[in-house]
């Protein structure tokens, strides 16, 4: 709740919040802050040059009343109730995609949470680039809709029109791929991305693959086990595509469909 500046449960808002998408900085470029926004339940990791108050002001200026930000709304490491995190993440992490699927707009910080454009060129290639992270792929799902929602580029400053155009061109290419809805295009795009936990690349596909259910999230789960669980719940036509269109027998536990390493 940006007006009261605190984390509130769903039943208080009773509306879809605006999710804030960002790529995490390297650990050395982050700092942990304790804030009353989340009741000081865990230290909030943000870039060293970022400020939660300034992020709030920017969101309010965009007309946002309720926002969802992972570092505030999803339990992070290091709090006094660390033992709860693994249990909460089993459900909370894989269902984040629900927010990005049904919202009508997403606020995006391409240079890091709360950091402005223009201080440095937009990063398109490094392992920390917003365009290369596994979870941020899921966070542009609104672009796949017949009536796509709005992806708001935040942190705008003067003289950054060239960078904004470059960002929009990249987003346009991704939107064209998403609108085609090809299973193998989705898998190829995710395989090119990077993540802190390797299993994130599989968990981040669940909403793209029109899954009947969402498998639980386990940070240390093997890639093949996570892939097997996702195959079991993905849309039947996608499962059929794995059977009939993939040109080789599977190299894993199932011969009828490819292993995660093959796709």
Can you offer a commentary on this structure?
The chain is an alpha/beta fold and 263 residues long. Helix content is 36%, strand content 9%. The strands form two sheets. The protein has a four-stranded parallel β-sheet with strand order 4-1-5-6. A two-stranded antiparallel sheet has the order 2-3. Helix 6 links the parallel strand 5 and strand 6. It is globular and about 55 Å long.
Question: In brief, what are we looking at here?
Answer:
With 263 residues, the chain is of the alpha/beta class.
Topology of helices and strands:
Blueprint: H1 10-13, E1 18-22, E2 30-33, E3 44-47, H2 52-61, E4 67-68, H3 70-73, H4 82-92, H5 96-102, E5 105-109, H6 134-138, E6 150-153, H7 161-180, H8 183-191, H9 200-203, H10 223-233, H11 236-244
Parallel strand pairs: 1-4, 1-5, 5-6
Antiparallel strand pairs: 2-3
């Amino acid at each position: 709740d940006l007006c009261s500046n605190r984390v509130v449960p769903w039943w208080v808002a009773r509306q879809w919040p605006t999710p804030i998408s960002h790529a995490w900085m390297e650990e050395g470029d982050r700092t942990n802050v304790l804030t009353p926004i989340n009741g000081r339940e865990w230290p909030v990791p943000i870039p060293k040059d970022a400020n939660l108050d300034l992020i709030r002001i920017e969101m309010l200026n965009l007309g946002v009343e309720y926002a969802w930000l992972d570092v505030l709304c999803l339990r992070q490491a290091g709090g006094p109730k660390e033992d709860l995190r693994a249990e909460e993440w089993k459900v909370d992490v894989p269902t984040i995609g629900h927010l990005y699927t049904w919202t009508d707009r997403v606020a995006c910080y391409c240079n890091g949470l709360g950091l402005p454009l223009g201080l440095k060129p937009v990063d398109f290639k490094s392992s920390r680039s917003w365009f290369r992270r596994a979870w941020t792929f899921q966070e542009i799902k609104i672009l796949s809709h017949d009536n796509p929602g709005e992806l708001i580029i935040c942190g705008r400053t003067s003289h950054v029109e060239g960078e904004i155009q470059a960002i929009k061109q990249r987003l346009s290419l991704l939107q064209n791929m998403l609108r085609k809805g090809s299973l193998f295009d989705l898998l190829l795009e995710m395989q090119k991305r990077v993540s802190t936990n390797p299993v994130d690349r599989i968990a981040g596909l669940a909403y793209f693959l029109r899954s009947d259910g969402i498998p639980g999230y386990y940070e240390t789960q093997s890639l093949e086990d996570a892939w097997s669980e996702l195959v079991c719940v993905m849309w039947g036509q996608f499962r059929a595509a794995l059977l009939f269109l993939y040109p080789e027998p599977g190299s894993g536990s199932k011969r009828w469909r490819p292993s995660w390493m093959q796709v």
